[in-house]
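REQUEST ID: PR-0412
SUBMITTED BY: lab tech R.K.
PRIORITY: routine
TASK: structure prediction, single protein chain
INPUT:
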Amino acid sequence: MKMAGSVNRIVSLLARTTDGARRSCGTPINLQSLRRNYVGFSERCMITPGSSAAVLCGPRETRRYKAKAKTTFRADVLPEQPRGWEPETSMLHENLNNEESVVEEGNAAITTSIGEESNEILWTPTGTGGYPMDWNDIMDIKWDPQSTMRCGALGVKLGMCHTWDAWGWKTPLTAIQLQDNEVLDVVTPNDEGRGVYALVVGAVNRKKTRRVHRSQLATFRKRGIPVKRYVRQFKVSPDALMGIKSRIQVDHFVPGQFVDVIAKTKGKGFQGVMKRHGMKGGNASHGTTKSHRKMGATGGGQDPGRVWPGKRMPGHMGQKNVITHSLQAYKIDTRWNILYVKGCVPGAVGSVVAISDARRKLPECALPVPTAADGVVPYGFHVAPPSPRDPNTIMRRY
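STATUS: complete
OUTPUT:
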């Protein structure tokens, strides 16, 4: 109660300065959102930097300021920026004189019409802008979700990060960089019709070729392609075939679509059943001796007289290929050829991952077939369109 009362007193004090702030800079302050967003946090937060600034303190800093009796609010002095706040990439600009509100994240603009006639939010092309609305109108080969199977790509896992959308929701992302993806070979069925259509893709150029086998080295030199460190074959449909030396960039994937990621998990070495299989283990006390983390019985006695195949036991953990289904491609960055997928991806930082279109979840928009043409996607970054859980979309239902 003391914590909520302290914050309420701060917000009430801020409310008395709201009228003056509105007259000076024309920017109202939503007190309801302040109570909802800042109660319980122990970090300093800024409200409309540059116009009317105030400091909201969480329970820890409220007690500290109260003990020192130095709780002051000055509009000309800004507090130090809290962790996670990047004014260059997350800025809130409001201009009520022009009857227009714009929320910008980097170069991404979201225009809100607040006139008397319409209250709908008009979403501009996300990110840098200029992203194609429909790939079927640009590409010669049309995307068919029932029959088209595009080629995948190989990437290097850079690590995890997070971002905030326009509504303040935190989204965890995994950054994957597509390095030097080129088509090495085209596989087609034989004369008898046996076999499949596939593309062999190589990624990450090798600087030193001493450890490359002579036959593989001759294959790369024959095609005039730099020696690749990783090679993988992707099954495709006949309409998604590409020529040798064709490059696959990050614009091959459309922001908002879902992808499957295959990678090798981290090796954990030899582990017990509690860590490897999540077993409960033995009792911690009550006469237990040297059996706290053991697996228990492995089977019956004379009948069946053996251990059933597949019994979970201690052994080597990790270092296996695992597929993660239906991860959303949240953002693409054509400047650094980086794909940001929502969620986590198996594997250590620096490991290679295979990315392909999701098998279980079809995209809602058309995809470029066989891949995006050069120069169609603008240079910059492009974010997925709003999801159905956005507050504006939910409010429209009622």
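NOTES: Confidence is low (pLDDT under 50) at residues 13-125.
REVIEWED BY: pending
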